[in-house]
Amino acid sequence: xxxxLSAKKSGCFKINSCKCIMKDGSGVINLKAMGDANGxxxxxxxxxxxxxxxxxxxxxxxxxxxxxSQPEDLAGMDCNNVAACLVVRxxxxxxxxxxxxxxxxxxxxxxxxxxxxxxxxxxxxxLKAHTLHVFYDTKLRSEEPLQIWVESPCACPNACAVEELxxxxxxxxxxxxxxxxxxxxxxxxxxxxxxxxxxQISPEHSVWCMICYLCTERRPTGRHCTDxxx
Length: 230
Fold this sequence. Notes:
Shape: elongated
Number of domains: 2
Helix content: 10-25%
Keywords: Membrane, Transmembrane, Transmembrane helix
Strand content: 35-45%
Transmembrane segments: 165-185
Structural class: alpha+beta
Number of strands: 15
CATH class of the largest domain: Mainly Beta
CATH architecture of the largest domain: Distorted Sandwich
Distance between the termini: 75 Å
Strand order of the largest sheet: 4-5-8-9
CATH topology of the largest domain: Cation-dependent Mannose-6-phosphate Receptor, Chain A
Low-confidence stretches: 1-7, 139-145, 225-230
């Protein structure tokens, strides 16, 4: 189990729909670390329910961070860009399917219980009954209707690292690409020449024509490039 430092501030402040930061400064809980390669905590997972016909099968898909749609090729269905989708399949009705979504990522709420060391996240739908409560814990507890219990060490702050592109990484990528483009274009568009002050580098004559052509969006007629080297 994770041990939190005692502090006056308690709870987890929501950063975005996927992660929150502990108010006592102990770290960040990222739900992305709990999903699979496609971001799902469960995809078409069979569920059991009371008072359900034996000819019906209940399947649940839940993605804590990435919105998804079911079925993917039919836009406008109830499960469109949702966090959780419940599918009821009737075996003796030509495999009739019924899709019901149980919340979206927008407007979800984070609550952390310091005593139980448990994070709960609520996803809300258009109907009050279509609300999903997900409890992330380091210990497994009994299930209740319309609730998902997730046992994972990633429920502890900073327990699981997730590789994400931060601003520093993006800056280094842009810098590397710019440097590579500079040297490649420089080797093609610049030529060295010798002058009284030594060896200098100047753009090729065609470069100036190309710049003028791009600016005027038409090829110049009756004009020739002049030597602009000194």
